Amino acid sequence: MSNAQKIRRYLTTNPNASARELATKFGVSLAYVYTLRSLMKKDAVNTALPETDWKVLHVGTTDTPNTVILGKTDMVNHPDHYKTGGIETIDFIEAKELNYRLGNVVKYVTRADHKGDRLEDLKKAQWYLEREIAQCLK
Question: Which pTM value belongs to this model?
Fold first, then answer.
């Protein structure tokens, strides 16, 4: 049985186990645990959403279209622009134990190229970073 399977099984009976507890118990890194939890959340969301929320890609020619179901999109709990790079931004922020201001810096920087107005998101990140710097200077 793989570590991932062991951890998933353990979490079914111990859902409130901390990431540190899991990493220590199974001899894996915190990043491994956070990635696994992210995948588990994604699996849970994919099975909980109604079929109408599936993201569908139509491929082929107009004469012979094929439909490929890619997965479900949950714009409230797991928007695509927060998952770029294979890990959700919140999981990274929690793994690094960042405070509110630094967490927002990470959030705005990581989604800047994926949400719409890049400059606006970078300015928001800058605003939070300037507040963090001001706090350090006090």
Answer: 0.46
